């Protein structure tokens, strides 16, 4: 029986080559022509975490996608010790393939401390029970897709996603940029708290860019008219996370233009605690006709 979560955990168990040098692999998926951005974010965060004292947890990361990743070859992650202070530790991670940078990330880690607290409330939306899983929705349209995509649509998923207001994946209507979904690792796991952060970072790149598509009635399946890719990604982690439990991803897109879309997200646990905030700009470009 397949275990996509086990495969994801193996994917994040990157190999240490030297003190600050690591090697990550990509999953063997024939449908993939480039490395999923969330994978590179998560593997970079794992590399950074392995050079930081255990008592310090990541509170922010800022990343740039420079070149498409090649899923056929390993990714080398080089960690630079930017600063080790009394309360904060800073790391810079560079991901390299074919001798060139494909991605870089700065991440900051902090010791736990008490302070004043406030947060925005979680949106009042239906819970995950009763909502269709993304895989179910994909299976409903699999026979309408090219054969090359059907196998990928049918496979079991490492991240379970239930959209509160889903659009038709092939022929979406114009909709509000604001949308919500529930997501989690698709089975219970027993891993250290830092790895829960890395798993959330992996999943945070899912669906966020689609906020830019919704007001224009397009999806990533509109290959003939849409070119899209993550350009940069920022994430702020506000506290501990148990990502094998349901979390609400509340997203919007305040702006799109000049071939780019800007997207934001807030992530809440089931208790209503705001555990992370995300911002991303992505390429949302109309393909020019070759005629």
What's a concise summary of this model?
This protein is of the alpha+beta class. It has helices spanning 4-12, 37-49, 134-141, 147-154, 193-203, and strands at residues 15-18, 21-24, 57-65, 75-84, 88-97, 100-110, 159-163, 179-185, 226-237, 247-257, 260-269, 274-286. The longest helix is centred in the N-terminal third of the chain and has 13 residues, at 37-49.
Explain what this protein looks like in three dimensions:
The protein has 291 residues and is α+β, with helices and mostly antiparallel strands. 17% of the residues lie in helices and 36% in strands. The protein contains 5 helices and 12 strands. The chain has a 12-stranded antiparallel sheet with strand order 1-2-4-5-6-3-9-12-11-10-8-7, covered by helices on one side. A hairpin with a 2-residue loop joins strand 1 (15-18) and strand 2. Helix 2 runs antiparallel to helix 5. It is globular, with a radius of gyration of 19 Å. It starts with a helix and ends in a 5-residue tail after the last strand. The mean pLDDT is 92.
Overall mean pLDDT stands at 92
- Order of secondary-structure elements: HEEHEEEEHHEEHEEEE
Question: Into which percent range does the helicity of residues fall?
Answer: 10-25%
| Main β-sheet, spatial strand arrangement | 1-2-4-5-6-3-9-12-11-10-8-7
Bin the strand percentage.
Answer: 35-45%
Overall geometry: globular
Q: Mind summarizing the main beta sheet?
A: 12 strands, antiparallel
Give the beta-strand count. Answer: 12
Distance between the termini: 48 Å
Total DSSP helices:
5
């Amino acid at each position: 029986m397949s275990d996509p979560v086990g495969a994801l955990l193996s994917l994040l168990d990157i190999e240490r080559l030297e003190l600050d040098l690591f090697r990550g692999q990509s999953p063997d998926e024939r449908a993939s022509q480039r490395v999923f951005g969330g994978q590179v974010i998560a593997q970079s965060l794992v590399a950074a975490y392995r050079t930081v004292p255990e008592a310090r947890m990541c509170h922010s990361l800022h990343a740039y996608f420079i070149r498409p990743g090649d899923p056929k070859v390993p990714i080398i992650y080089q960690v630079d010790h930017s600063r080790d202070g009394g309360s904060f530790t800073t790391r810079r991670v560079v991901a390299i393939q074919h001798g060139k940078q494909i991605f870089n990330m700065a991440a900051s880690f902090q010791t736990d401390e008490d302070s004043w607290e406030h947060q925005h409330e979680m949106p009042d939306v239906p819970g995950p029970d009763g909502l269709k899983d993304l895989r179910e929705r994909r299976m409903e349209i699999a026979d309408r897709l090219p054969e090359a995509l059907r196998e990928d649509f049918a496979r079991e998923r490492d991240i379970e996603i239930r959209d509160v207001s889903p659009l038709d994946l092939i022929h979406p209507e114009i909709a509000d940029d604001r949308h919500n979904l529930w997501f989690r690792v698709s089975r219970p796991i027993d891993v250290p708290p830092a790895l829960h952060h890395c798993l959330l970072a992996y999943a945070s790149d899912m669906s966020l860019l689609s906020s830019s598509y919704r007001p224009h009635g397009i999806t990533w399946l509109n290959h003939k008219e849409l070119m899209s890719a993550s350009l940069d990604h920022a994430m702020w982690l506000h506290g501990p996370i148990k990502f094998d439990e349901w979390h609400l991803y509340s997203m919007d897109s305040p702006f799109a233009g000049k071939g780019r879309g800007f997207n934001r997200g807030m992530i809440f646990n089931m208790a209503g605690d705001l555990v992370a905030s995300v911002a991303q700009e992505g390429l949302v470009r109309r393909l020019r006709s070759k005629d």
